[in-house]
Amino acid sequence: MAPSPSSLPTAISSLLLLLLLAAAVSVYSSSPVLEGGIRVVSAEKRIDLTGSIVKVFLTLKVENAAAAPEASQVLLAFTPTEFERLAIVKAARAEGRRKKKMYIPHAVKASDLAAAPNGHRLYSVLLSSALKSAEVTTLEVFYVLTHSLEPFPAEITQSDPQLVYYRDSAVLLSPYHVLEQTTYLKMPSNRVESFTRVDPTSRTGTEVKYGTYYDQLPNSYVPILVHYENNYPFAVVEELVRKVEISHWGNVQITEQYKLRHGGARHKGVFSRLEYQSRPSISGLSSFKNLLARLPPRVHSVYYRDEIGNISSSHLRSDSHKSELEIEPRYPLFGGWHCTFTIGYGLPLQDFVLESDDGRRYTNLTFGCPLLDTVVDDLTIKVVLPEGSKNPQAVVPFVVEQHVETSYSYLDVVGRTTVVLKKKNVVGEHNVPFQVYYEFKPIFMLAEPLMLISAVFLFFVACIAYLHMDLSIRKS
Ligand SMILES: *[C@@H]1O[C@H](CO)[C@@H](O)[C@H](O)[C@H]1NC(C)=O
Ligand SMILES: *[C@@H]1O[C@H](CO)[C@@H](O)[C@H](O)[C@H]1NC(C)=O
What we know:
Elements: H1 7-28, E1 38-48, E2 54-64, E3 71-78, H2 80-85, E4 86-95, E5 102-110, E6 121-131, E7 136-145, E8 150-151, E9 155-156, E10 163-169, E11 178-186, E12 192-195, E13 201-204, E14 207-216, E15 223-229, E16 235-247, E17 251-262, E18 266-267, H3 273-278, E19 291-295, E20 300-305, E21 314-318, E22 323-327, E23 338-348, H4 349-352, E24 353-355, E25 361-366, E26 375-384, E27 390-395, E28 401-407, E29 416-426, E30 433-439, H5 447-468
Parallel strand pairs: 1-11, 9-18, 16-26
Antiparallel strand pairs: 1-2, 2-7, 3-6, 4-5, 4-7, 5-6, 8-10, 10-15, 11-14, 12-15, 13-14, 16-17, 17-23, 19-22, 20-23, 21-22, 24-25, 25-30, 26-29, 27-30, 28-29
The site of one 2-acetamido-2-deoxy-beta-D-glucopyranose has 3 residues, from loops.
């Protein structure tokens, strides 16, 4: 934190803040009781701050009161800021002991309950089996927050490390009464500039522990701020358009257009390539010069280019499970710098286009972005189906915006049905298979060759006609 010139105003403002907090807590503890008599017996929140994306693992032991009706859902609360930055929320029930632990996933959806105070937004974990009265269950919740590490200072030179702020609450924000709770923050190194103390608070090496706190009223929130060094590459794909073209003649062609930005502290001053290359351990610590893309196995005809042309500095490693493409932009990326590029590759049709039991065909590809450890602000996937395809239907395991359009390419008569899927705030956890089902009559495969044949045929007819025509102005 920046040192303040006088500590008196700070003291007064923090006192005011405390009073406000106390008032807030007392008002909201009388908020309407949510479904069932749920309370959190114990909660452990582990926040992973080592990357550019914040990952939170929450273990909640919840109990339904003895006289309460069955509960079918457990609510999770987020502040409005967190809600905006939330990329994914997953929940599972842990079953069995230690080694034989199994995780049974629960559905999670944004809740329409508007009862949360302070504009807090709720998600509900829909329990796969209702929680009866006096029953206890343990939920494992995992969520990802993007753009939640604020570089401070906001501008650094080539030789400065990158420091960031992270804000959260020492106690668990929850619509329920929390009996016992701890929060752990994991930093990438032990260079921690400062952290808010909310006793008991302790630090061991790279980890800061808040709590154990007891008996927290519903909707308690105690703001904390940590300031620490984080030189992880903050790779942000501002926009990614992935185009998948299916040809029943044996190929799936994928073209991906990237608009990439280094989302960390902005670079100031001049960039010295000499210093960058000669002292890599202290120069440009938070910059990055290569990225790894995980592509499906058996890719072929891989290319990587930008507006200038092909970039040869890419390496492809392939085995039977996956292919890894390491790409190196023309210059290292420093905070605030941009680059745009295109990756293209072909995939064997039989691996990715299958026939379903009802006779329809479907594509089975991976959603999300193949670049590892990046956040995509705006993702568009266009699946261009072969000409003559009908009734497309996309199956994606989370909410996406979708529509159907028609696109044209060479020799097309009626155009190709194209399924467009859009999603904002996409992270690695979104890289899961998705399907696009469609109806296709094999006779349409003949359309293109027939067009070609008739074109050639017409050409010859025209030639013959021309040769047989007497166009000369000759006197007979
Ligand atoms: C770029 O590379 C691709 C694939 O290797 C190749 O097909 C294309 O002709 C190359 N383009 C240029 C301009 O070199
Ligand atoms: C899609 O492919 C994945 C493997 O990449 C496989 O596990 C999954 O079962 C496939 N889904 C369908 C519906 O074929």
